[in-house]
Structures are given as C-alpha cells and as structure tokens.
Input
Amino acid sequence: MVLGLCMTAWGQTKSPKRGLCVDQGKTNAADFAALAPGVSWFYDWGTSTNIDYEPSGIVFVPMTWNTGYNKNDLTSFLDKHPEVEYLLAFNEPNFRSQANVTPSQAAAAWPNLQQIADEYDLKLVSPAPNWCGDCVKEGGTTYYSPYQWLADFFAKCPDCRVDYIGIHFYMGDKNAVKGSIDSLWNQFHKPIWLTEFNMDKNGMGDNGTIDEQRAFMVNLIDWMEQDPHVFRYSWFLTRGGILPDLMTSTRGQLGLLGKIYTYMSSYDTTYYHTTNTPIEAEHYVTMQGVQLVESTDTAGHLSVGYTATGSQLTYQLDVPVTGTYNLHLRTASEQNATLAMRVDELTPTSLSVPATGSWTKWKTSLFPVSLTQGKHQITFRYNSGSCDVNWLAFEGGGKTSLLNPTSSSTKQKVLENGHLLIQYNEHLYNLMGEQIK
Output
C-alpha cells in the first residue's frame, strides 16, 4: 500500500529562542523570508534598522552598542514599533576595539538606559562581554574574563534593573559552552541571551570544517533549546562573517547551516503530530547521537543522518483511536538496520529496516504497529546498523489509502505548493486516497 504525503514546511511552532545577528547591508527581505520558518528575532547592533524585515514576521531587538548611543534614534524607533519588548545593552564592553566600556562607566550610564526601558516597558539585557585579548582596565584589573566584568558591573550598580545576562562565546564544543553558561547562571541567576556564538576549536580562530560546524550547531542548539536558563541565542553571522554563514552569496538562498538553523527541531513539547500526516525526521523532541544532513530525497530540507547503535529519536503523536496503524518509514542506507520502537514505557517493537543500496537512494518501508488512543511519546532506538531518515508517518485510524498500485505504474510527484501526492494512471490522489485530478 502506498501513502501519498502532504509535506508541510513546519509541524512544531518555531522556537522563540532562535535569532540572528545581521550585518546591515548584507542581508535583505529575501533572506529574512527564507529564514522565517524557524527564526523569531534578530538584531544588527543598532538602535534602529533599515532592513525590510517586517513581512517575515521576525522581530527586531534594538541595541545600544556603547554608552554613546543615539537616544533620539532609539526612542523614535520605539515610538513607531510598540511591539518591541527587549533592549540589548553594550556590545563586548571589555574589548577596547568594541564598546570599550569599564564596569564603572557602564554603571554610570545605566540609569538613563533604564529610564528609557521603563518608559517603553522594555526588559533589559546586560552588556554582553566575551573572553578578551584586547581588554579594558580599571582599578588594577584587566578584564580578560567576561564573568569578572559582569561581577564588577553589578557590584558598582547594585540597584540597577537588569533582567537578563548577555554574553558571547566562541568555543570548540557543546560541553565548553554548556559549562560556561551554567557558570553564568550559578553566578548571576538570570536568564541568558547568547547573542553571538560560533565554533572556535582552540580559541585562536580555527572555525573547523563544515562538518565540524554542523555538528557543533546541532549539538549545542539541541542543548540550548531544552535548557531553561538559555532564553535566546543567535548564530554569528547571517552573511558576511565566519564562513560558512547561514546564507549563501545568493539573496534568499540558505546554505547548509542555514537550512539546519531554520528547519531543525524547535523542541516544542506542546505539539503532537497527528496520524495520516508526515512527520519530518528533524522534528523530534529529543535526540541522542544523530546529526542533520541536507536531504537528497524528492521532498524535505533535512534528513537525520550519522546514526549508529544507540542513536535515538523521540516524537510526540496524538492517536485518535486504538488500533493497528501502518508505520511508513522513509530511509536511505547501504546497510540493514534494526530499530526498536517504544511507545511511552511499553515493551518496544523491533523494526528491521532493509538497506536501500545507497545513502542517496530512498525507499519507504511499511510496518504494522499497535497504538492506543491518546497522546504518546514514540522513541526509535538503533539497536544495530544505520540508516538516514527523511520522514515517517502513521497511517490508519479509519483513514487508509485507497491506493494499491504496482510499482511500475506509480510515481511520487512534488507539486509547486509543496504537496507530495501519488500519481497513478495519470490521476492524482491525496493522503486519503481521494482523487483530486
């Protein structure tokens, strides 16, 4: 039996955490439209912006780059944009080559900034320091450490309202960033905006290969999306920064990292996928030991790849009625794989997934599985072998496909509106087997 799938651009709601740092003049409305399915906010180091961002639905967050910010420009923008909720403060203040602001200078400037925030009902994000080599000095202290700069700022400004901690980290792996953010939380007990991050393998500007950057992005976002102490984050840079950027040199075109950043899971634990609808493999709510790769299938942006024994993927599914469902699993591999499918805490079901002959040759395997009515977490664990996964779907609940064509007379066809349907004897059918053309 063949399942016709309506491939949607997004199942979960997009992450409110995921943002952009954008270099003005290097990003336009077409870029924002491409990033919009997965990105919620951006900043460009300015108190206002001339980027045509509003059609995308991505929200701008102003920044006072240093203590000499243009107050009139900021308040004029805020007057015209009452939707603004947050204000970012000074950019890398402990760098002489950046904002070049000591803790005492920041504390002296804060009351005026707080007055603006109070007037416009904005929440304030602290200055965002970083590990420094070209550092400001004050009272015999050279501020190499972002923790020390922030500690002294709060000591000199004990009554200042600061709602969030801003920070930049360029480190070599997820655990280094995680440990640093944990330290910030333990020291200041305020939610954290990681407003610049990218991979620096050794602290000397070695940004690694594209595969290393991809693994760093996927693994770190996997943690940040689920950590309650990380309020927002933004990859450096959208275009024109550390290569590879999110965008290619072509306007409106996502690069590999941009596709991952836009379409990877938002970890929306309030959303449950429905039966008879495809679940894009990257829309798990938890994962272990997998990576995301650009899809080579006929539909979809990403596939789950680099799986191995012990890899896991968990999805949330709302089952309408108890019964037997057909699990459709779209895979590609050069080897057989055995997966264990566990529904909640029940005994897992073993799934033998055959090799397709190539990592770019895709086939859909079908498995009958028993599901009870209600909302469930469904976990797939790799017990042996490996296979990439593009999508999965649970067909049933009284709504089954009416098609049973032979392979020689059937083909999948991607329509311009993004719907993937079955074509059989020159007629098109939707997921329910209803003829539409």
